[in-house]
Design a protein that fits this description.
The complex is a heterotrimer of chains A (about 160), B (about 80) and C (about 260). Chain A has about 160 residues and is an all-alpha fold. Chain A is built from six helices and no strands. In chain A, helix 1 runs antiparallel to helix 2 and helix 2 (about 35-55) packs antiparallel against helix 5 (about 110-140). Chain B contains three helices and no strands. With about 80 residues, chain B is mostly helical. The radius of gyration of chain B is 14 Å and the shape is flat. Chain C has helices spanning about 1-20, 35-50, 55-65, 65-85, 115-135, 145-165, 165-170, 175-200, 220-250. The model of chain C is unreliable at about 90-100 (pLDDT under 50). The chains are: A mainly alpha (about 160), B mainly alpha (about 80), C mainly alpha (about 260). Chains in contact: A-B, A-C, B-C. At the A-B interface, helix 1, helix 2 and helix 5 of A face helix 1, helix 2 and helix 3 of B.
């Protein structure tokens, strides 16, 4: 009963925290004046979404479910089977090392999120380069001062 | 995945995110962003996503924070909010 | 302005929390994401298709290899874009005309106080690079792979630049060299794919490469090609991570680094 209650509270609580993190990142991107704070907000938003996806791949507590790296406990049956490698062998041969998918975490969201993390760091690099260029041109990194400086410029068509 | 550990880490995550955005000094904001990155790496390792945790540890706390610090050094360190 | 932002964010928060009541339960083995056929196929058949225990590396480099190739291209493009952005001349952009205030830089006094940092890093950096090579090579059996090892390798060069001088790092990995390294990485990845095309199979279908690799069958050929592909990714990622740092910390000029 205690475990069931804890499971329900933890289940909903997780999703609330993910949504809260996303909204913190979104608020920072909209309303902060400094450009670097906006970029930190963008990174927080990104990692919150990745956290949500990775949490979809959990299948249970660590007592039952392991990481998605396949390990074999029966060594002798392994060696006997690898001696004659027959593809499409009878089901009886696959019995000793049949892999039970419910004992491993789901690998598919991990793969997709690996790409997302690396692309996120590339985006951060490019955004930081653009903000350095803005600093070189306007002398400040605050959004309100940059907007005011742009309004005062004579009309220019580049 | 251990439920009590989960809850503590998630609350710490929200606290770190809010603090990183409220601090005026940009260098401190970057440091706390590095802490946020490392906490989320711990959370993923505890959920069983070891590859994702490895990548976040090296990329988030290692490389991303260094890029932010390099930019803060080339521009200004104070922020108005 | 901030009030409206707060209002919009709160409304979105309420809507998302309301939607979150419909989500499947957390951590059950038969939720729609976990009980699908694709993930179970990956978990069951990876070991016999390619003899690689780490399912995430196998999916990344073999089953979804096309994705990973374009991700490498994205990192390469980001590095090139940063170099292009930071080297624009001030005459072309719509500047305000006045020079921005110069960033005051502390004078570096070489009085021996940096001996500890530079001496420790001198001992650490070879070990870090060795560990990075281990992570790349052992990605089939343990968590790791091309990206993680490449980032650690790039970070070791960044550590060299921080502990001593950007010039010390640039002497070892000059601009010509790191650009060539990055291009060679992408070329290795696409080259393995094209080699499969030339032998008659689909693009990035590694099984057919057992005809040219000596003494392998289709499954071991997949395992070896995955290693080759990960090495390509590692080259590109390490070179570009150092390139981005060098360009960001000197605003494109590669002089007077951090």
């Amino acid at each position: 009963m205690q475990e069931f209650l804890q499971q329900t509270i933890v289940a909903n609580f997780n999703y609330w925290i993910y949504v809260t993190l996303m909204m913190i990142g979104l608020y920072a991107m909209i309303s902060k004046n400094n450009l670097i704070k906006k970029l930190i907000g963008m990174s927080i938003f990104q990692t919150a979404i990745i956290l949500f996806y990775v949490s979809l791949s959990v299948k249970g507590t660590t007592d039952e479910v392991s990481i998605p790296i396949i390990h074999h406990h029966q060594e002798e049956a392994e060696h006997a089977d690898h001696g004659g490698e027959k593809k499409g062998a009878a089901a009886a041969h696959h019995e000793p090392h049949a892999i039970d998918p419910t004992k491993y975490a789901n690998p598919l969201p991990h793969v997709l999120m690996l790409t997302a993390i690396v692309v996120g760091v590339a985006i951060l690099g490019v955004a930081l380069a653009v903000s350095q260029l803005l600093y070189k041109d306007y002398g400040t990194l605050e959004e309100s001062e940059i907007l005011a400086a742009i309004k005062e410029l004579p009309s220019d068509h580049g | 995945m251990i439920p009590s550990f989960d809850i503590i880490l998630l609350i710490l995550l929200v606290v770190t995110a809010i603090v990183s955005l409220r601090v005026r000094d940009l260098l401190s904001a970057t440091m706390i962003f590095g802490v946020y990155s490392f906490l989320i790496c711990l959370l993923w390792a505890e959920m069983g996503a070891v590859d994702v945790a490895f990548t976040e540890a090296s990329v988030g706390a290692g490389v991303s924070a260094v890029f932010l610090i390099a930019t803060v050094f080339n521009t200004s360190r104070n922020s108005s909010d | 302005m901030k009030f409206f932002a707060l209002l919009a964010v709160s409304v979105t928060w309420c809507l998302l929390i309301y939607a979150a009541r419909d989500f499947p339960d957390f951590a059950v083995p038969d939720s729609p994401a976990n009980g699908g056929k694709v993930s179970n196929y990956f978990l069951e058949k990876t070991e016999e298709n390619s003899h690689v225990p780490n399912v995430v590396t196998a999916v990344l480099a073999d089953y979804r290899g096309y994705d990973t190739m374009f991700e490498t291209v994205v990192i390469f493009t980001a590095g090139i874009a940063i170099m292009a952005i930071l080297r624009m001349t001030p005459g072309g952009s719509t500047g305000s005309g006045a020079l921005p205030p110069a960033v005051p830089r502390r004078k570096r006094t070489f009085d021996g106080s940096e001996l500890i940092v530079s001496g420790t890093c001198k001992l650490l950096i070879p070990i870090i690079q060795l560990f990075a090579l281990y992570v790349i090579a052992h990605g089939h059996h343990s968590p790791g792979g091309g990206f993680q090892g490449g980032v650690i390798l790039g970070a070791s060069f960044i550590l060299l630049a921080i502990s001593r001088n950007l010039d010390a790092a640039l002497q070892r990995l000059s601009e010509k060299r790191y650009l060539m390294l990055a291009s060679v990485g992408v070329l290795i990845y696409a080259g393995i794919g094209v080699m499969s095309l030339l032998l008659g199979a689909n693009f990035l279908d590694y099984g057919i490469l057992s005809q040219i690799l000596p003494a392998t069958d289709a499954a071991m050929a997949r395992s070896h090609s995955m290693l080759g592909v990960e090495v390509g990714v590692a080259f590109t990622v390490s070179a570009i991570m150092f390139a981005i740092y060098a360009n960001l910390s000197t605003a494109g000029e590669l002089k007077n680094g951090l």
